[in-house]
Amino acid sequence: MQSRGYFGLGVEGISKPMNAGTLMRTAHAFGASFVFAVSPYVDIRGIRKSDTSGTADQVPYYEWATVDDIALPRGCQIVGIELVEESIEMPSFRHPDRAAYILGPERGSLSPEMLARCDHVVKIPISFCVNVGIAGAIALYDRMISRGRFAERPVSAGGPVAPRKAHVHGEQVFRTKKTVKKATPRRVQAPE
Question: Class of 6-147 per CATH?
Fold first, then answer.
């Protein structure tokens, strides 16, 4: 589904195990490289009722007590998903190759410390907040459709009229030119 890069999905201050499980299952379904939680108020291990895919057994899970404790790979950008005035509307946002998406808790928002730590803050262009699990699914779906390889959408209603184009590999590229020495024939004398 995804062409390059990796992503993770996490939440700050989550308190409901069903929502945590839904987020983890969604991340797993979309091919996340990792999942994480910052200051969770729920025992993440108790989420199996809604995470029936067993994400914690399949994908690395990281938990940090505070925003300052977050340790992500070099080059990984934190993308906050939050309904604040200065947020970029998601349909206009170009997703980074390496991203860690973070959502706020139920009945709350990302902390000021987390917002300050974010490289980007995006919002889903809707009238009011939706469930944290739904918001996570929308964000990962947007990443998939904007970065994936799919057939072009038709002009009229319905599915594509032509399948997506097959990937074509380019010519082999050599960084340095090597010269091949031609072998010169040797004369072999017969034994006397």
Answer: alpha beta
